[in-house]
Amino acid sequence: MSAPAPEGVLVVDKPAGMTSHDVVDRIRRVAGTRRVGHTGTLDPAATGVLVVCLGRATRLVTALQAGTKTYAAVVRLGTTTASDDLDGEVLTTVDTSHLDEAAVCAALSGFRGTFEQVPPMVSAVRVDGERLHARARRGEVVDRPARRVTVESILLDRFSPGPAAEVAFLVSCSAGTYVRSLARDLGAALEVGGTLASLRRVSNGPFVVDDAVTLDELEADPQLLTARLLTPVAALRRAVTVHEVTDPATARALVTGTRPERLGLGSPSDRTTALVHGPLLLAVVGPGPDGPQHLVWSQPADLDALRQADAG
């Protein structure tokens, strides 16, 4: 009898030079399962935290992908490109020798708070039903609708002056924020242009790069995947509100489909909440893109098995 496919959440340190989907493919081979997905795309040149869900935990992607992301970024000032990073065609270059740290700090401060941001032309955003990057490959440049984003903090780490000045900063921002757009807009604010030179995601919500495993480590020791895999309950305890359901009758009602608000557990539209009973994840409720979400996770048989284990 074959071993069950792994189920849970893995924090991966994505290397440069591959897409997020490439990472998923390599983990599929290590894990021996096709049911693998990730909670937030990183550009091929970017590195750092990629939260990967395996098995049934792929159903938790929506619950786990919200939250603040933190990036360490380097921006090349005086250069603009078609993709807003160094992978794109260079459009303009100007001398930046006149810039100093005070001017850069003043410009960075203008990006704190909530504002409208135009996504890069090379991105996965859909305009008229088609991904922007597909249109960019055909040489098209189209108007992109601005999206509301929030930058909680943006801190200067290093300023390297000169004809091609560079700015390194740490930024914590909402999901959906493009750091490439921040690089472009920082350069525009300084009237010299700018493009992203490097990007590393150091955290995705509560999942941090210090907890991440590399693909090379996983492929060298496949047993490491099991050792580093977070259970669905453990991952959700980090990421969302958790409500402990202690009453067995209430737990059974939840896994047979009774909505939590009917059991006095609040409205699922307020915030994402995991409902747990001991080690069991019963359900996940919360806001979704098309209205309140209600994901039933466990079955009555799981409760019966837990009760028998406790009795034994």
Query: Can you identify the CATH class of the largest domain?
Result: Alpha Beta
Identify the quaternary structure here: single chain
Biggest β-sheet, characterized?
9 strands, mixed
End-to-end gap = 26 Å
- H/E order of the elements? EHEEHEEEHEEEHEEHEEHHHEHEEEH
Helix content: 25-40%
Rounded Rg: 22 Å
The general outline is elongated
Tally of alpha and pi helices: 10
Observed structural traits:
10 helices, 312 residues, nine-stranded mixed sheet, Pseudouridine synthase, four-stranded mixed sheet, alpha+beta
Could you characterize what this model shows?
- The structure is a single chain.
- With 312 residues, the protein is α+β, with helices and mostly antiparallel strands.
- It has three domains: 1-67 and 206-239, Pseudouridine synthase (2-Layer Sandwich); 69-204, 2-Layer Sandwich (Pseudouridine synthase); 240-312, no CATH class.
- It contains ten helices and 17 strands.
- The two termini are 26 Å apart.
- The mean pLDDT is 89.
